[in-house]
Amino acid sequence: MTIEASSFWLAALAYAAATLLYTAGVVFAREKLVSSAFMVTCVGFAAQTASVIARWTSTGRLPYVQDYENALSGTWAIVLTYLVVALVYRKTRVAGLIVMPFVLLTIGYGLLVPAEAGPVTPPYKSVWLVIHVLFAWATYAGYVAAASLAGIELLKARRGARSVPGSVLDKAPGPERLREITFRLVAFGFVVNAVMIASGAIWAYELWGSYWRWDPVETWSLLTWLAYAFYLHAYLTLGWRGPRLAWVAFLALFGVMMSFWGVQLLPSSYHLFRDIGSFDVDMGRGR
């Protein structure tokens, strides 16, 4: 087994352990378990970083081709964002309860579809594609982090008067603080999402001669961007607060999941991750 593969598997095992520890910490109200989960997450992130570097070194390019590399690099960006948020706002570590299962499932999918390292074909060496992918990862990471904090806000609201003093959720930031951080993450994701869509359109024009084709990937990306635009509008203009606003941030993540992974199951998409760099172009579709 290569260093890349062994490191990726180690990361997956660490994230699985972290998921169990986060869950146990919240269910049994043990803050030490949450702290342990955070440390295990850091170990997994270090292993995943080694895997990303190994892939980059072996291919001589960013790992952005096919499902496997997108799972490898995309989840790396998600965990990095979570760790940064958790270090800046220490009481938000409990958000790993939502982040880590999401990361674990995505990594599991990536491990099921491994791909040999290799160069990409000339049409896919565009700088606009690299920009598009980098901003896609940033979008993915920002929205997942926002959804996780919104989920914690919803859990705290559900507990309400039944909250147990000293529980892990009670030690998380209050609703107002959670909303503030969630809003910042959504705003960040919204901006980089717009850049992702624009750069993808430019790359598509270079490759297929059309900026927009209402392809499933493009359609879900636009719907996701509009969903988070509604969140920002509801927060800034309509004055929404509380669970209904948190539900918007949480449920809008469905659009992200469809944009990145759901459409991979559809044969109608003409720029599937698994096909990038591996097919010829003929009338805007892979042969």
Explain what you see.
With 287 residues, this protein is an all-alpha fold. It folds into 2 domains: 1-119, Four Helix Bundle (Hemerythrin (Met), subunit A) (Up-down Bundle), CATH 1.20.120; 121-271, no CATH class. It has helices spanning 3-27, 31-59, 66-88, 96-112, 127-159, 175-208, 216-236, 243-251, 253-260, and strands at 281-282, 285-286. A two-stranded antiparallel sheet has the order 1-2. α1 packs antiparallel against α2 and α5 (127-159) packs antiparallel against α6 (175-208).
Strand content: under 5%
Q: If strands are numbered along the chain, what order do they take across the biggest sheet? A: 1-2
Major sheet description: 2 strands, antiparallel
Per DSSP E runs of 2 or more residues, the count of β-strands stands at 2
| Tally of alpha and pi helices | 9
Order of helices and strands: HHHHHHHHHEE
- Tally the structural domains: 2
Radius of gyration: 19 Å
Per the principal axes of the C-alpha atoms, what is the gross shape? flat
Mean pLDDT: 86
The stretches of 5 or more residues where confidence is low (pLDDT under 50) are 277-287
Oligomer: single chain
- Counting helices, strands and paired strands, the structural category is mainly alpha
Helical proportion, percent range: 55-70%
* Distance, first to last CA: 33 Å
Quick rundown:
The protein folds into 2 domains: 1-119, Four Helix Bundle (Hemerythrin (Met), subunit A) (Up-down Bundle); 121-271, no CATH class. It is 69% helix and 1% strand. It contains 9 helices and 2 strands; from the N terminus they run H-H-H-H-H-H-H-H-H-E-E.
